[in-house]
Amino acid sequence: MTKGLAIWEAYREFESAIVEAARLEKVHSLFRRQLAIPLYDMEATFAEYEEWSEDPIPESVIQNYNKALQQLERYKPYEEALLQAEAPRLAEYQAYIDFEMKIGDPARVQLIFERALVENCLVPDLWIRYSQYLDRQLKVKDLVLSVHNRAVRNCPWTVALWSRYLLAMERHGVDHRVISVTFEKALSAGFIQATDYVEIWQAYLDYLRRRVDFKQDSSKELEELRSAFSRALEYLKQEVEERFNESGDPSCMIMQNWARIEARLCNNMQKARELWDSIMTKGNAKYANMWLEYYNLERAHGDTQHCRKALHRAVQCTSDYPEHVCEVLLTMERTEGTLEDWDIAVQKTETRLARVNEQRIKAAEKEAALAQQEEEKAEQRKRARAEKKALKKKKKTRGADKRKAEEDDEKEWGDDEEEQPSKRRKVENSTPPAGEAQDLEAETGLFGKSAPVDVDAPSKQKERAAALKRDVPKVPHDSSKDSITVFVSNLPYSMGEPDVKLRPLFEACGEVADIRPIFSNRGDFRGYCYVEFKEEKSALQALQLDRKTVEGRPMFVSPCVDKSKNPDFKVFRYSTALEKHKLFVSGLPFSCTKEELEEICKAHGTVKDIRLVTNRAGKPKGLAYVEYENESQASQAVLKMDGMTIKDNVIKVAISNPPQRKVPEKPEARKAPGGAMVPRQIYGARGKGRTQLSLLPRALQRPSETAVQAENGPAPPPAVTASAATEAPKMSNADFAKLLLRK
Hints:
By secondary structure, the protein is of the alpha+beta class. Among the domains are: 75 residues, RRM (RNA recognition motif) domain (Alpha-Beta Plaits, 2-Layer Sandwich), CATH 3.30.70; 74 residues, Alpha-Beta Plaits, CATH 3.30.70. 57% of the residues lie in helices and 10% in strands. α6 packs antiparallel against α7. One of its GO terms (cellular component) is nucleoplasm. One of its GO terms (biological process) is mRNA splicing, via spliceosome.
């Protein structure tokens, strides 16, 4: 409608240039045809016709013109929507296609599909809808096959297009060799799921089955069908399973179809039973529906003996719905079996159901035990945290006493023993000023004989350090307001006045009630804070600010959750499952920006979002996630971008499917005879080192008898707490000096 006027005008100018009497009627015909079609600027064309024609315009032409004007008004909203929208304008084209299909003009429907595909040739759904319309409405062989061929050429990763292409070729009587070649092309198209290969094999096997005349005992087509079934099973086992780690056909649908064909159409129950036996050995024997499918096949085409045998095996093997299988067996024996058959069936079903009930009771008990263990572990974690806090407090109170004892030891060592020059004690953070250093040198003397040390020096230093600390009040946190509070972390330690700088950022999400930054005892900002809102919806909206860059670092925003009540709570806002519309890009140069990557990716489809992966400091890791509008665009981008070079870096592109995170294994424990659980050995965060060097003098080393007994001998005495273990060896500086100087 928008560009047709130029074509008609060019055509008329060509005809008008030939000044012959016969050509004048041709120009009249062109004007009348053009005025009968809804086009933009029709009024100008009508006025031009009135001026050019010497005779009055016929009434029929005026009626067609008015009719075309009415059609133009109906089409205008859709055309204007296309003019205003930006490419690829898929939604606008879809609405236009719906409108044209309601009217039902085949030429115009075909035209709007072709216009839409010019800008959306990589959208499989559009090709499917177009080919479906041609298959059901026009049914013109050359046109239909041409569109199907273009569809699989533009979207080769879509199995539905290949299946429809095979059906269309069969429908229009294409030669068998051409169909076989097309099927081989489909196998090499590179589908992204294992199930896609099962679907294309099913379509091809259905086609081969329809070629067979089963009235004949043997034929070339039947042998080809059986050979194709065998090849399909081998292909799924080797090619597909090697690539996807699964065959794509866990229920063995291809083998089931083969068994049905052998039983119903070829009267070959022996082959069907062999196939079903193979199906059951592939892990399907525990499903009741599989056994009942086999039973129904035997019921229809086999004999009672094999039906009874199948149900007896089903009773023993089924684990999902054993009651249903038992009911079918008893029903069959009630209808056809003898008294002996009935007794055997009742005995087997009762035994099996009793065993199943026992297993279910054990499973329920095990589940309850696991739940109890989880509760106990949570309680243990809570107690461990409480003990850790108590231990810290105890260490703080013990610190002053320990320092005083060390100072007394220094005095004793200075009076009793002559200090070695190379072993002179160095006190941390106690370097005296220049004047004091001279006095100290004079007091110490040439041979290092030390005068009594001022005992109050360290305590005075601590008082001076305490005087430097800010008077920062502790920040109380009300856990009842967790629903309207967010926890903000990974902020720069150097941020001054965090509450003032963060308030404008969070006020965009709603009214902020309070911002509570956390400071250390020295008054230094610790990099995290709590932001409390007036309303819960504001807190939920604030979670969208997660990973926003603040002073060069990504700010983490997460829900405020009490970890003591929810120790396993973790926040990870991104999906860890397969996302077919999202790509994982690795190998990017660190200098690559989001805008540069978007410029590269948008050439293959509509990019909804790009996330560059960074570390906690905001530095790029060379990884990115690119989200497309649909999975077809993502698949096309994988084919085009994988192996691409960006700034001398070869990138790798794949569909986003993160590996499952491994849960860290807990230290293995064993129970000592008559005692509690004893850990085998717990190493540091980096595991066991290559060398286990002892950093204590040999004179101070003592064999660890407790560990040996816990590992190999009888049960050790009641375990000593960590605090007691650390307090046990108390030695003064004088004791250490005597040990080191002992001859």
